[in-house]
Amino acid sequence: MCIQSLQEENDRWIDYLQKALTTSRKKEEEEEKYQEVTIGEQGIFNLIYEAKEAVITLTIYQKEIDSEIQKLTQTLNQQHTLPTEVTKPTPPTYTNVNLPQLSLSVFNGDPRQWREFWSSFNAAIHSQTVLEIQKLNYLISCLKGSALQAVRGFDIAPQNHEVVRKLLTEKYGDSSMTTKLLYNELRSIKRNEKEWIEAVEKKWKESSDN
């Protein structure tokens, strides 16, 4: 499949950048080439995303067509078994699936931002009546940094949506971790007493919000 081939080529390139290159200059040149190929509207990442969206849409249409074929088959069978009755075939009904636009917030792995991110994502995607594979696809598209690395090994499959969601919630949704991070930030601040008080009040407010 083309999507898998693109992903495999991307993984091999990353592995080459990390292991095969020995000189820093050569590595910088290869990294620039890698960014030119992967970033932007015509980049590998965007092509992979658009291809996955197309697969999802085609899968939805295929299921709708299969459902209508089954209905028509049942209608024809009824006409053959009941010749005295005039049965009108049920007109096809198509479900208009409105996929949300991807103007969603992005989560980079900072536990302090998890609650805000999930509230937004839950309202826009997770609580909507769309397929599990769509929810997973949108969720992964909103991740970057360490959060994306944490779920990189999972395939885009319906059964993986709940697994990925639980993994992220357990890893980044722990309030004690957020409190610890805020406390460490307070300890690292070295300013005068007034600035210290202002910083404490700010961090306390962030802790209360989480």
Automatic annotation (TrEMBL):
InterPro entries: DUF1759 (IPR005312). Pfam families: DUF1759 (PF03564). It comes from the Eukaryota. PANTHER family: PROTEIN CBG08539 (PTHR22954:SF3), RETROVIRAL PROTEASE-RELATED (PTHR22954). This is Gag protein. It comes from Loa loa (Eye worm).
